[in-house]
TrEMBL record:
It is found in: Endoplasmic reticulum membrane. This is Guided entry of tail-anchored proteins factor 1. Belongs to the WRB/GET1 family. InterPro entries: Get1 (IPR028945), Helix_hairpin_bin_sf (IPR029012). It comes from Vespula maculifrons (Eastern yellow jacket).
Length: 167
């Protein structure tokens, strides 16, 4: 029973952890005060530019336009750096977890290779019992490798159903 719960939890975590990582990285890499101030400055400069006549006061308008472009480029650089760092952190933690999870699955498969995850009543799995018990020799049981396959397929289908029902 413990093997069933642990192996199912491993499969569930494979789909939940990336969602949790995305949530935390989004909240860890939020806009800084500098970005907020730059946005406010851009808005005030835009208002000033709207109040000035481009034809009558071209020099002043051009000066504000250059200042606006400079602030906008600075803001884009800061945002791109923040988003790049967030993307890197998300990828490293997600793939790091998947690597550790893969090693854990391999260890479980090596240790519990001949152990059944579930033993069922006789002949309940009759047409496919040989396939589901592989590589174990226990009658009417499901092996760990087959359970990982079944659990992963079931969880991926549930996530697909959840994703399509939200859209």
């Amino acid at each position: 029973m413990n093997l069933l719960l642990i192996s199912t939890l491993i499969c569930i975590l494979e789909y939940i952890v990336p969602i949790v990582i995305t949530y935390f990285t989004t909240h860890l890499y939020v806009r800084k005060k500098q970005e907020v101030e730059l946005r406010k400055n851009l808005a005030t400069i835009r208002q000033e530019m709207a109040s000035i006549s481009m034809v009558d006061e071209f020099a002043k308008y051009a000066k504000l336009q250059r200042k606006y472009n400079k602030l906008e480029n600075t803001l884009k650089e800061i945002e791109n750096g923040r988003l790049s760092n967030r993307r890197k952190a998300r990828l490293l933690t997600t793939y790091g977890f998947r690597f550790i999870n893969g090693i854990l699955i391999m260890i479980f498969l090596y240790i519990y290779n001949n152990e059944p995850v579930i033993k069922l009543p006789k002949d309940i799995l009759w047409p496919i019992n040989y396939f589901l018990r592989w590589p174990t020799n226990h009658e009417d049981s499901i092996s760990l490798i087959m359970w990982f396959i079944i659990a992963r397929i079931a969880i991926s289908k549930c996530t697909q159903i959840h994703i399509t029902s939200n859209h």
